[in-house]
């Protein structure tokens, strides 16, 4: 993907890249996908009606035909069971619901601001299905899936399943001198005024005191001003993804349309919503791991030899096997939010 360096050394924006299907990332992040699917009314079995499946490459549909994709699902859209090793997935759901199942025996249905953080470590299988519960109305789904790398010393840790429920995620509500509101949702990292940060999974790069990892979403009302504080760590890199709204000014510099903007991390930057509608951004920052990255599909290691070992291990062990009766399990037609953790803990949350 082409990037545009910014020539002025005084500019707060170091480079700018367009937002495509996959968003560009900076070490320690590997991948960021923004899924925004206008799923129609369901077929009564949480799947897509047959007429809407016509003309698709079922099992590998990324077409966005009629405003949505089936991905690897054949009736219920989503991602049936598949393996990972060597990194973490962080899934932020803005609209709709996701049904999760994994080889640890964990299961969840989450959405409406909930976040799932999964440490793949030495190996895990999981599925992410998008059940269409409404058969008489559309089923919109919007989410971010972010891949956060693990350093070599932690790539083979035990897998770990974490849920961050919307009601418990810290938020900063800032009202500027003109009465305009900015809301910052803090999935990872610390932000003064947002309350105590939630602990990341124990083996995550984000759990390192000097890693300076932050995952925030920003929402600025029209005319709102808010100052993005400087990063805490030396060497931190920061990407601001502007994806909603018509006007954003950073430290006095108007931005020319939605983009992935690498901004200077070591100083505070005033953000201004200079448009007539709401602006929304995603912020990803962290100190780089600065190790070799070798990726083969769902495996991210430090060498080709480690990738070959991952393939051999998966063929031999299936990363613990698959304790579900189908590759694409869904969790019933009831509109609910819950998680069954490995072991006996069960969370039940009010429907958002």
Class by SSE composition: mainly beta
The share of residues in helices is under 10%
Q: Name the CATH superfamily classification.
A: Jelly Rolls
Shape: globular
Number of helices: 2
Number of spatially distinct domains: 1
Main beta sheet: 8 strands, antiparallel
Measured distance between first and last alpha carbons: 37 Å
CATH architecture heading: Sandwich
Provide the fold topology.
Layout (H helix, E strand, L loop, with lengths): L3 E2 L7 E5 L4 E2 L5 E11 L10 H4 L24 E7 L2 E9 L1 E6 L4 E5 L3 E5 L4 E6 L9 E11 L10 E5 L6 E5 L5 E8 L25 E7 L4 E4 L8 E8 L3 E3 L2 E2 L4 E5 L5 E5 L5 E8 L7 E3 L2 E3 L2 H14 L19 E4 L5 E4 L3
Antiparallel strand pairs: 1-2, 2-20, 3-4, 4-11, 5-10, 6-9, 6-11, 7-8, 7-10, 8-25, 9-12, 13-14, 14-15, 15-22, 16-21, 17-20, 17-22, 18-19, 18-21, 23-24, 25-26
Summarize the structure in words.
This protein is mainly beta and 352 residues long. It has a single domain, classed as Jelly Rolls. 5% of the residues lie in helices and 41% in strands. The chain is built from 2 helices and 26 strands. The protein has helices at residues 50-53, 304-317, and strands spanning 4-5, 13-17, 22-23, 29-39, 78-84, 87-95, 97-102, 107-111, 115-119, 124-129, 139-149, 160-164, 171-175, 181-188, 214-220, 225-228, 237-244, 248-250, 253-254, 259-263, 269-273, 279-286, 294-296, 299-301, 337-340, 346-349. The strands form 5 sheets. The chain has an 8-stranded antiparallel sheet with strand order 1-2-20-17-22-15-14-13, with no helix packed on it. It has a 6-stranded antiparallel sheet with strand order 3-4-11-6-9-12, with no helix packed on it. Strands 5-10-7-8-25-26 form a 6-stranded antiparallel sheet, with no helix packed on it. The longest helix is centred in the C-terminal third of the chain and has 14 residues, at 304-317. It is globular and about 55 Å long. The relative contact order is 0.19. The model has no long low-confidence stretch (mean pLDDT 96).
């Amino acid at each position: 993907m082409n990037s545009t360096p910014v020539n002025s050394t005084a500019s707060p924006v170091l480079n700018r890249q367009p937002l495509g299907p996959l968003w560009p990332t900076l070490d320690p992040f590997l991948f960021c996908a923004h899924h925004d699917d206008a799923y129609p009314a369901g077929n009564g079995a949480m799947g897509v009606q047959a007429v809407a499946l016509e003309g698709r490459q079922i099992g590998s549909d990324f077409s966005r035909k009629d405003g949505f994709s089936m991905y690897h699902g054949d009736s219920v859209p989503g991602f049936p069971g598949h393996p990972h090793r060597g990194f973490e997935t962080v899934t932020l759901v803005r609209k709709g619901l996701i049904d999760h199942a994994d080889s640890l025996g964990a299961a969840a249905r989450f959405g409406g601001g909930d976040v799932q953080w999964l440490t793949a470590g030495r190996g895990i299988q999981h599925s992410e299905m998008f059940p269409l519960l409404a058969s008489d109305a559309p089923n919109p789904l919007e989410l971010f899936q972010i891949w956060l790398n693990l350093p070599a010393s932690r790539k083979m840790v035990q897998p770990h399943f974490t849920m961050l429920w919307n009601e418990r995620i810290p938020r900063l509500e800032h009202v500027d001198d003109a009465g305009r509101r900015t809301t910052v949702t803090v999935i990872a990292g610390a932000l003064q005024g947002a309350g105590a940060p939630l602990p990341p999974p124990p083996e995550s790069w984000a759990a390192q005191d000097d890693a300076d990892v932050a995952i925030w979403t920003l929402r600025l009302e029209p005319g709102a001003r808010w100052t993005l504080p400087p990063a805490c760590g030396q060497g931190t890199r920061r990407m601001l993804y502007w994806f909603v709204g018509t006007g954003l000014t950073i430290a006095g510099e108007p931005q020319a349309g939605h983009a992935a903007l690498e901004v200077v991390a070591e100083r505070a930057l005033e953000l201004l919503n200079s448009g007539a509608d709401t602006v929304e951004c995603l912020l990803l920052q962290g100190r780089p791991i600065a190790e070799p990255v070798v990726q083969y599909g769902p495996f991210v290691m430090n060498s080709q030899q480690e990738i070959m070992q991952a393939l051999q291990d998966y063929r031999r062990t299936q990363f613990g096997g698959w304790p579900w009766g189908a590759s694409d399990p869904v969790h019933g037609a009831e509109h609910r939010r819950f998680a069954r953790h490995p072991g006996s803990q069960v969370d039940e949350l009010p429907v958002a």
